[in-house]
Amino acid sequence: MGVSGSGKTVVGRSLAQRQKCPFFDGDDFHPPDNVAKMSKSIPLDDQDRRPWLKGFSKVVG
Prior knowledge:
The chain has 61 residues and is an all-alpha fold. It is built from three helices and no strands. It has a domain at 26-61. The protein has helices at 8-19, 32-39, 46-60.
């Protein structure tokens, strides 16, 4: 977790490649409604995060 543009994805991909394991970017699991809110700088609440957590946990869980 960190602010946008801080290099999280770059570091994550690099580590995954070195460890020969898959890389999953959490941002890819946000439903369209969340993406729309975030693009308008509207913070997500717990209700917004629930479908994101379910989708992400299916892949990494």
